[in-house]
Structures are given as structure tokens and as C-alpha cells.
Amino acid sequence: MRWILILPFLVLIVLFALSNQQNVHLALWPAQGWTELPVAIAVLMAAAAAFILGALLVWFDVLAQRRRARRAERRVRMLEEQLEDLRARGPIPSPPPGPVSRAAPR
């Protein structure tokens, strides 16, 4: 099943790389170095860097969600233990009925 999704993407990458073989001059200011790479390699490197950055952002968000879920699970366990303790003590006696006070109408 995974290959059904990955194979067309890989074919597109290969076709892109074969179609764009011209060299491009890459420099990074203020660095003095430069290099020449095929356009396809430069674009694929930029896409890979963007993919990795996006994956890291999603990963950090998932870590925060997992932390909140663990806290909630601990709280649920604590409340369930408290509930079991209360149930083990037996029923709470109800207070004796007292006089009902009603406010006088104005």
C-alpha cells in the first residue's frame, strides 16, 4: 500500500532531475564560497530542507500534545483512585432535615 503512494512521487522526482540538468551558480552571502550544481539538485535540496523544517515543527507540536495527554491521564488516574477511596468508605450519611427558611416576599 505504501508503494502505491511513494512510487508516483519517486517517478516525478526522477523525471524532474532528468529534465533539469543545466548548472546554476549558487552563492551564500556573506560567505565567499560558491558552487555550481544542476538545477534539479539545488531545487531538491531546498525542498528537502523545507520538508525537514516542517517535520520538526510538527514533531514539536506533537510532543506538546503528548505531554498534555500524559498530564491528563495522570489526573484521571488520581481522580479514579480518589473515587475508589470514597466508594470504599461507604455511603456518606445525609444531614438531618432542618427547618426550611423561605425569604419573605417583598
Task: Give me the secondary-structure topology.
Blueprint: H1 2-19, E1 23-27, E2 34-38, H2 39-89
Antiparallel strand pairs: 1-2
Helix pairs in contact: 1-2
Q: Please, could you describe this protein's structure?
A:
The protein has one domain. Helix 1 (2-19) packs antiparallel against helix 2. It has two helices and two strands; from the N terminus they run H-E-E-H. The protein has helices at residues 2-19, 39-89, and strands at 23-27, 34-38. The termini are far apart. It is mainly α and 106 residues long. It has a two-stranded antiparallel sheet. The mean pLDDT is 86. Strand 1 (23-27) and strand 2 form a beta hairpin.
Sheet with most strands: strand arrangement: 1-2
Order of helices and strands: HEEH
Main β-sheet description: 2 strands, antiparallel
Average pLDDT for all residues: 86
**Uncertain regions: pLDDT < 50 for 5+ in a row?**
none
This entry's quaternary arrangement is single chain
Number of helices: 2
Gap between N and C termini: 77 Å
Number of domains: 1
Which structural class best describes the helix and strand composition? mainly alpha
**Helix percent band:** 55-70%
